[in-house]
Amino acid sequence: MAPRDANWIDGLRGCASFMVVMGHLCTAFVPWLHAPASNPTTAPHLFQLPFFRLAVGGRSAVALFFLITGYVNAIGPIGRSRAGNTDAAFNGIARSALARSGRLVLPTMVATALSWFIANINGYHMTKHVDSTWIRQGWHRQEATIWAAFKSLVRAEVETWTIGWDDYDGTQWTLHLFLEGSMLVYMTMFATVLVKPKARFIIYGVLYLYFWQQGEGLAIGALKGLNIVFGMFVAELHNHYKDSATTVLPAPVPALMIITGLFMAGYPQDNPQNAHWSHMMSKFMHSLAGKDSDVRRYWDHLGASTVLLGIFFSRNARRVLTSPIFNFVGRVSFPVYLMHNTMIKTVLTWMVYLPSAMNPPRNEKGEQMDLRRGSRTHVFIAIAIFYYILYRTAALWVAHIDPLCGKIVNTFTKWAYGEPSTSSSNGGPILRNGSHEKTVLPA
User: Fold this and answer.
1) Domain assignments of the chain as residue spans, ordered by start
2) Most Cβ neighbours (<10 Å): which of 12, 18, 136, 390?
3) Where are the alpha helices (DSSP H) in 313-365?
4) 363 CB neighbour count, 10 Å cutoff
5) How do residues 269-306 score in pLDDT, each as one tens digit?
6) How many angstroms separate the first and last alpha carbons of the chain?
């Protein structure tokens, strides 16, 4: 895999990707951990408590992805605008907006085609019979004919970007929102290239208030809009403070921000009324958010935003996130996101349920019952092996699939610009952004 300079935003992206996978594993095998307690009178499990629950929750990680999208895509245009180089800013926005769709859509199409292929060789057969509701819901039938299979593939590839649902991989529902979020960044940058930084801060504030009161819509308010706008705000801070950002605040303040953000990000996905601390958070946010708003998304946003801001001002947090392990998980974060659901439904399911599949349980009438997972130790070992296979496969994806997709996108954009194509280009990281030159993970 081609090396890439370590940077803290890559490390943070890698953490978010890891959290998404953990959240889906929790939903698959221990969904009761998503509540702060089984009921209001029951003592919570360790991983139902604040902070600890982040180890099995992935909702706030989705907010982090939107924040990173806003931050990374806005840095370049803001920097050129502040330098008075408006021609370069407009040029960068135009090029990024054109290439962005291909750099997001192509690898997603590959991942969907892989899941489609597995489904149509009946690779998800075991998934239909397991005792995990979440895994069982991910089952997809084997189509009766090649023509039916082809039509189902085309439908899935299109609907991922139209209605936001992919029959072969339900976890891709966020990807069209990330594409929309990127275009929101480009549109805002295009509209504000000529304004001074103070005016742009005011514009961020107005946009933030607009999206706050639009919280009834999942895709409009607290999930996409607030995080994208706050990411642009942090990008503005980056261009304002530059290398001195980590010396602006006293050392304890960023640490306190990170801790506070982690607490808020731990707002439970289910049944907040089962614990006093989450019930109070629910009542407080209901008093601030619009009617019928999903207050979980507001807490996800506030928690992730506070963590991002704390890391931005913290030298020690940045140092941790630029370590080799975080740099690696950041580099492979996008293929990890694209492939993890498919691998949960295949590799992990086969490992967890194979003993039961070899001797399927039956009821008194002789009818086959749901396959049962192995012992707790068996499941833990299977998950450890699953993670190893997932990240090794993601590294191979970055080494082979990303350059191919990048080359296709570069060839098309060069043709669109009327520029000569250079066959020596290897494509670069698949989601390299024209305004910041770093990989941007959408989800």
Assistant:
1) 8-39+54-358+374-417
2) 12
3) 315-321, 324-331, 333-343, 349-358
4) 8
5) 999 999 999 999 999 999 998 777 889 999 999 999 99
6) 22
**Rounded-to-integer distance, Cα 302 and Cα 260, Å:** 10
DSSP state of 7: -
3-state secondary structure string, 34-69?
HCCCCCCCCCCCHHHCCCHHHHHCCHHHHHHHHHHH
Tokens standing for 326? 């975080």
For 218-272, the three-class secondary structure string (H helix, E strand, C coil) is: CCCHHHHHHHHHHHHHHHHHHHHHHHHHHHCCCCHHHHHHHHHHHHHHCCCCCCH
Query: What is the per-residue pLDDT across 154-204, written as a single tens digit (0 to 9) for each?
Result: 999 999 999 889 999 999 999 999 999 999 999 999 999 999 999 999 999
> 10 Å Cβ neighbour count for 356?
19
**What separation in angstroms does the CA of 170 have from each of 90, 139, 156, 341, 380?**
36, 10, 10, 8, 24
CA 179 from centre of chain: 12
Asked if 69 and 408 touch (Cβ cutoff 8 Å), the reply is: no
